[in-house]
Amino acid sequence: MQVQVLGPVRVWRDGEELDLGPPGRRALLGVLALARGRALRRTTLVDALWDGTPPPSATNIIQTHVKHLRRLLDPERHAYARSQRIPTVGDGYALRISPEQNDVERFYRRLQAAEQARLAGRSDQTAAMLGEALGLWRGQPLADLPALGGHPTVLTLFEARRDAVLAYAEALLATGSAAEALPVVIEETATHPLDEALAAVLVRMYTAAGQRDKAFSVYDATRRRLAAELGVAPGPGLAEAHAMLVKETPAPATVVRQAESSAGRLLPAHHRSGRPSAPLKQHLGIGTGAPLRQGHHRVRTAEPDGAGRAPVPRQLPAPPRPFTGRVAELAELTAAMRDQAEPGRTVVTSAIGGTGGIGKTWLALHWAHRHIDRFPDGQLFVNLRGFDPTGDPLPAQTAVRGFLAALHVEPSAIPAELDAQVGLYRSLLAGKRMLLVLDNARDLAQLEPLLPGSPGCAVLVTSRNRMSGLVTAHGAHPLTMDVLPESAARQLLQARIGTQRPAAEPGAVTELVACCGGFPLAMGIVAAQALAHPQFPLAALAAELRDAATRLAALDDPEQGAGVPAVLSWSCRALTPGQARVFGLLGLAPGPDIGLPAAAALTGLPLDEVRRELRALDQVSLVHQHVPGRWRMHDLVRLYAANRAREDQPPADREAALRRVVAFYLHTADAADRFLDPHRPPIRLDPPAPGCLPHPLPDATAALAWFDTEQACLLAAHRVAISNEWHRTVWQLACAVYTFHFRRGHRHDLLAVFQAGASAAEHLPDPVSQIRAHLRLGRAYADLGRLDEAIDHLRRALAVACLHDDRANQALAHHALARAREQRGESRPALEHATHALNLFRTLDDPVWHAATLNLVGWISAQLGEYEQARRNCQAALVLQRRHQDLDGEAITLDSLGYIDHHTGRNRQAVCHYQQALTLRRAIGHTYEVARTLDAVGRPYAALGRADRARAVWREAVELYRQLGRGEDAERVQRQVAGLSLRIAACSGRSSGSG
C-alpha cells in the first residue's frame, strides 16, 4: 500500500487506486498521514477539519470516517478486531503504516540520508537523495483539499521543500551538474519571488551553465522587485552571486561557503536537533527570539548609535501573556502580509474584526511582536477608543499629532491643518519599513488619515466594526475572529491557573469552558476568580455560571470595569434606537440562530428594513451572519441582549414579539407539513398577527429543506409556547412538526413535543384535540419501543373517541393499536384491531386510510404465515395508494410485499419491491424507513447468493441506524454482515476441501 499526501490525497493497494470517498474522509486521512505515525486527539482532528466552526456531530463524523478508512486500508480485519492501520490511541487515532508507504515520511527520510551524505562529503550522493525527495512531490500537499493549505504541518513542509531545493542546487553546483536542478529551482523561485537565497542560487546556476543573459535577468528582476515591494537593496548572498556573474567565473571558495550555508539548512531545525523549527514555532505560538527573514534578507534593528541619531519609535505595548490558540488567524495574517505586498501601494495587512472581548488586540500584538524584525524603522501604536466607555473616539488629528511626535517632529514644526499634518506624516514614513497598529477603530473616517502612502509599511487595524469600507477602498484583508475552540480555551485556563487544579477537576473545567463558550474575556475573568480564591474548588465557579439567569453577573468585573456586560455595553453605545431594539429582541428569539423571515416576524419590520438593521449589528460584531440569510449570537451576547430587552422594552412589546415569531414558525410549519403529508387532517389555525408573514414554500422538497434548517428553532419556539402556557399553540405546533420528525427519525424530539402537546390538549375544550394528542403520543412511544405506555395512550384515545361517537378517530385508534400490539408480538389481537379499523374506514369514504389499513391487515396476516391472503390485501392497498398518489403509503405497502415475497421464496420479486420502496422513501426524505428497508432487502440478496449487494445495503443500514441513534439495530445488522462473511468463508473452505 502507498499513501500520497504530497499532492492530491491518494492511496494505492496492489497497484490499484482506492476510492477514498468524500473530501472529509480524505482530509482526515491526509491529516493523519502528515502526523507520520503520531496519534492525534479527536479535538485536534476536529480543529483541523473544521476551521473553528465544527458541527455538533463532528466527533461522530470523524468516527464514521475512521470506520470507512479502516475497512478500506485494512480489508482483511475482522469486524471486531483492533485495527492495525488506524488504531484508537487514547481519545484519538493514528495512521500506522511503514515509513516507505507514506510519501511524507519518505521525503523526510531522504532529507536525512542527504544530510548524512553531505557530512560525509559525498556531494553526488547528497544530490541523488535530494532529487529523490523532491521527486516525491506531485503538487502542493493535500492539493485537493485547499481548506487544509494553512495547516501548520503543511506550512512546515513548504519550508522543508524550499530548503531541500537550495541544498539540491548547491550539491549539483559542487558536482558540476547545475543544469539538472534548473527546472526545480526555476519553479521554486517563481513561487517565492522575494526569496533572495533562491534567486542567488539561480543566478549562480545560470552562470555555471554559461547562460549569463538569463542570470542577469534573474538578478535584475529580483533587485527591482525588492526595491519596489520592500524598499531594500539585495542582501549579501544575492550581491555576491551578481559579483561572480560580473567576473564570469564563480569563486570556488564562495561556492563552498554557500554550499555549507544552505546544507546547514538542509533539514528543518526540528529534524536536526529535535527542537521545533522557527516556522513551526511561529505556528505553535512559541517565540523564537531570532531575526525573521524577509525574502531571506537579514534585517538588523536600527538602534541609537550615540551619534545624535533619533531613536526608532517602539510603541507596541508588551505582548500578551499567556497567548494560546489562534494558529489559523496568525497564519492568515502572515499570508495577508505576503500576498498584499504589491508595488506602489500601502500594505494594509488586515482589518481584524470581532465582538468586544474576543481577543482582537491580543492577536494583533502577538503577531506584531513575533514579526517585529520585519519593521526595523519602528512600530507605532494608538488606541483610537472607537468603542471606549470613557468618552468619544480619539480624533484623527490627535492620533496624527501623536505619531508625528513619535517620529521626532518638534511641536513648533507640526502644521495646524489636518491635511498638512497628514502630508508631513506620510512624507516621514516614505521609504521606511514600519508597522502601525491602529487599535479599537470606530470607522473609516477615523482611519484614513492614519494610513501611510508608500509601500513598505504595514497596518494592523482592530475594530468591533467589520470595516468593510477599509476592505473596499484600500484592499485591506478582512479577518473576523470567532471564539476559541474547546482545546484552546482549556489551554488558556491552564496557562492562567496552572495544570494541577484542572487535572483534579476535569468535569468542572469542561463545564466552565462550556459556560464561557470559548469567549476569551469570559475565560480570563474565570481564571482571575480562580486565582483570587485558590481554596475554592473549580466546581463552585462552575455552579455560579451554570444558571443562565446569573451567568452574566458572575462574569462581571466591577473593579476593572471590563467584565463581559461592560464590554458589550460599549458596543451598544454605537447603536441607533432601532438597532438597539432589534438587538434586544434577537436576545429573546427562540433557537440558536434566526433567518431573515423569522427576524422580520419577531421585530414586526418589513424584510428590507430588518435586513438593514441586521447588517448594521453584524458590522459592529454583535451578530454574525454565519450562513447566507441566517444570523446568530454568541450565548453570552444573547444573554446580554435579552437583559437589555427586559430593561428597555415594555412587557407587552416583548410578548407581542414572541407571539409573532412563534406564529411565524407555526404557520410556516403547518404549510410545510401539508406538502409532506397532504392527506392528514387539517389544523385550524388562528390568522397570524399583523407583522407576521409566514415563509412561502413552493413544494415538498423546499418544505423538507426548511424543516431541516429550522428544526432547532422550531423546538425552541415550542418551548417558548410551553413556558408561556399558550396551550393551543403548543398542541398545534406539535402536530405541524409530526411528519418531519417521524420521517427524519427524530424519535426523542417527537416524544417530547407530543408529551407537551398532550398536556396542552387537556386545557382545550375540543375533544378531537385530546384524542389526536393521545393517538400521536401513543405512536411516539411505540416508535421508541415503549409499548405499554403506547397502548395506554392509544386506549385512552379510543375511549374518548367512543364517548363522543367519533368514528373516524375510533378507526385511527384501532389502526394504531393494531400496530402497537403487532410490535409487541400479539399478532391475533393486532389483526382484530386492524380488521375493526378496516370496517370503519370502508364506511367513512377515506380511501387513503382505507388503503393504509388494507396494507396493515396484509402485514399482520403475513406475520401469522397467511401469505396469500396477505398478498391480496397488500396488492389491493397498492392500487388505491397509487390512484390517490399516497407516496408514503405506497412505500409502506411495497415494503410489505417485499417481505411476503421473501418469505414465500420469491426473492427476485422481493428485491424489486424493496428497491421500489427505497426509491420512494429516499424521494420523500423518509430517512427512518430507508434504514429499515435497507435492512430488509439484504435478506433476499443473501438468499440469491448476492453477498456483495447484501453486504453493501447492510453497511448502509448500519450507518443510517447509527445516525438515527438506533445503536441496537446497528449492532444487529453489523452481526448480520459478520455472519454473512463467515458463511462465505465456510463455503469457500468446503469448496476447496472437496477439490
UniProtKB/TrEMBL annotation:
The keyword DNA-binding applies. TPR repeats lie at residues 771-804. It comes from the Bacteria. Residues 1-97 bind DNA. The keyword Hydrolase does not apply. Keywords: DNA-binding, TPR repeat, Transcription, Transcription regulation. Transmembrane segments: none annotated. It comes from Amycolatopsis vancoresmycina DSM 44592. The lineage of its organism: Bacteria, Bacillati, Actinomycetota, Actinomycetes, Pseudonocardiales. Gene3D superfamilies: P-loop containing nucleotide triphosphate hydrolases, Tetratricopeptide repeat domain, Winged helix-like DNA-binding domain superfamily/Winged helix DNA-binding domain. Residues 268-322 are annotated as: Disordered. GO terms for biological process: phosphorelay signal transduction system; regulation of DNA-templated transcription. Residues 1-97 form the OmpR/PhoB-type domain. CDD domains: BTAD, trans_reg_C. Belongs to the AfsR/DnrI/RedD regulatory family. One of its GO terms (molecular function) is DNA binding. This is SARP family transcriptional regulator.
